[in-house]
Amino acid sequence: MRIFVPLLALAATLLTGCTAQESFQNAENCTKVQVGMSQQQVRGIMGAPTGEDAAEGGGKTWSYLFGSATDTQPIRIQFDASGKVSSATCAPEASGSERPTGN
C-alpha cells in the first residue's frame, strides 16, 4: 500500500503534464486549419477530437481541449454537410506562441 500512493501521485503528475502539452499542441495546430479542408486533413493536423456533435444542416462540430484543468476553452472545428471545414473557432489564446498556464 505504501508504494501505491507515490505511484498514484506520480501518475497524476504525468497526466497533468500531458494535458498541458496536448493543450499547447491544439492551440498551435488550430491556426493551421483552413476553411475548405476535409475531415481527414483536420485529423492529420489536430488528431482525434475530444468531442463530436451534430451541427445544423447535416454537418458536424469537432471539439478539442485548450486551457488548464480549471479553465478550459474548447477549440471548435465546424464541418458542413459535405465534410469540409466551414469555420474554425480557436480559443482566444490559441495563437500557439504561449503555453497555457494554471495546469
From TrEMBL:
PROSITE patterns for the chain: PROKAR_LIPOPROTEIN (PS51257)
Keywords for this protein: Lipoprotein, Membrane, Signal
Alphabetical list of Gene3D superfamilies matching this protein: 3.30.1450.10
Span of the signal peptide: 1-20
Keyword Membrane listed: yes
Stored InterPro entries: BamE-like, BamE_dom
GO cellular component terms, A-Z: outer membrane
Domain Outer membrane protein assembly factor BamE: 26-87
Keyword ATP-binding: no
Pfam families listed in its UniProt record: BamE
Highest taxon in the source lineage: Bacteria
Name under which the protein is recorded: Outer membrane protein assembly factor BamE (Lipoprotein component of BamABCDE complex)
